[in-house]
Amino acid sequence: MSEAVLLPGTARALELAARLVQSETRQPSLVAGVVRDGRLAWSTAVGESTGGRASPGPDLAYRIGSLTKTVTAVLVLQARDEGLLDLGDRLGKVLGSDAPFAGARLYDLLAHAAGLPAEPAGDWWERASGGDFRDLAGRVATQQPVLPPEQRHHYSNLAYGLLGRAVEQVRGGAWAKLVRERVLEPLGMTATTYAPSDPGERSARGYSVHPFSGRLLDEPSTDTGAMAPAGQLWSTVRDLARWSVFLLDGDDRVLSATSLSQMRTAARGSVDGLETVYGLGLSLHARPGGDRYGHGGSMPGFLAGLRVDPRQRAAAIALSNGTYGGTPVLPDTLLDVLGEHEPLLPEPWRPEPVVAGADEIAGEWYWGVVPALVRVQSGMVVLDMGRTGRSSRLVPAGEDRWRGLDTYFAGETLSVERDASGRVTSLRIATYALTRRPYEPATEPG
């Protein structure tokens, strides 16, 4: 993955943003990169304290913390796609009825909606050497859900430790081996590893910064054991650039396009809601220029952030070796800078292809007195109900039938109603009646 060249003004503004985070939040070293059109378009390194002779740069490995969860989620969805498990399964179906939190659904664990405790009982797992799953199960045996399931987002590291074990169970292999063989190797992410490689030379050492003296305090580099699926991995800006391209464009060798889309879809709520919105392994973020998705990460001595912006066809990554600071939110700033200085040029408009059955239903409709519009866009039929938020893309589902693909009407069937002459009179979806005129007398309003 080679670096392209951004305009000098863009590069300087990106450099400024990275340097401000490094200096204002006292990161021993910080590396960052911007991806556009499938390649690393810009990168920088600020600071010198890597714990050895290595200079910071796009090929130096840092611990990425909870960015690991995005990889674990891919493993779970791979297993689902191959019929090894179902996201509606209870954890006990996979791990046995005596497993901790056996009643939790796999889907809810992925979405942080199962109500599990944020952390496993015992010593803080991020700073303590972790044991095997038997040890983890013993430590959490007396813990109970802290919230009812499926009611609200409650971030849980423990949930991803359990998901990692579920994948091991259905695959019959160790999580680390599955990550390497089923995700990293197909994507060419050879610098992403379970443990640091040659600390101080090929990977940075982790530090905390004393609040008053400014001295660097060593942080441990732990093997988190059974909790590894929640935050163990190490990676580089260059490898995470490859990961961001996968999250944007997909790769059927690793995950189907349908499953990748599911990762990027809110599991509950909407992206513009007040609470944190999570898909399956990805956090979702509303921005003025369009929604973004990605993840942050933190482990003692390290911070990480990755954000993907589909509208810009871009992504940004930031890694540092300090325990506290602004690194996880830097990618959003970098994407804002990119959009301001070098906005993506729109694709030329091209005539739409013929979509069978679309011409008869295209045009203006009314839900009561609320205007709605059916049109063909990007080769698909779109039902746009404006400010109501009740909109969806539609795909054919039989004669005079269309199925909602996403958002409010996902999975719902739109039926085309005709009179005795065969003329289309109304559209009905989820009990709503759409007519050509407001509250058209010939059709019962819905």
Automatic annotation (TrEMBL):
Top-level division of the source organism's lineage: Bacteria
Every Beta-lactamase-related domain range: 23-332
InterPro entries: AmpC-like (IPR050491), Beta-lactam-related (IPR001466), Beta-lactam/transpept-like (IPR012338), DUF7586 (IPR056008)
Pfam families documented for this protein: Beta-lactamase, DUF7586
Signal peptide region: none
DUF7586 domain boundaries: 358-436
Descriptive protein name: Beta-lactamase class C-like and penicillin binding proteins (PBPs) superfamily
